[in-house]
Write a structure and sequence with these properties.
By secondary structure, this protein is mostly helical. It contains four helices and no strands. Helix 1 crosses helix 4. The radius of gyration is 17 Å and the shape is elongated.
Length: 84
């Protein structure tokens, strides 16, 4: 399997570029919302104590699309790393 775009057909390259553009637009328009959601989830950490991780997983399961869920998960992980 080659990841070199030069080895792909024009249609395949266009599809890859369209997907990259879609993901960038999604990221750009939802980053603030994802950070806010992550802050809300992280803010529950002290209150929920040992059940927090399980609760966060359940909350993340309710989010969509999957790319947005991934953004929120990344922000929660960033907040956790900064808190250590």
């Amino acid at each position: 399997m080659s990841f070199n775009l030069a080895n792909k057909s024009l249609a395949e390259r266009a599809a890859i570029e369209d997907e990259k553009s879609r993901l960038f637009d999604l990221w750009q328009s939802n980053l603030g919302k994802a950070k806010g959601e992550a802050a809300r989830l992280f803010g529950e950490r002290a209150k929920r104590k040992g059940k927090w991780a399980e609760w966060v997983r359940a909350e993340l399961d309710t989010l969509s699309p999957p790319e947005y869920t991934s953004m929120v998960r990344s922000e929660v992980n960033r907040l956790m790393a900064a808190a250590k």
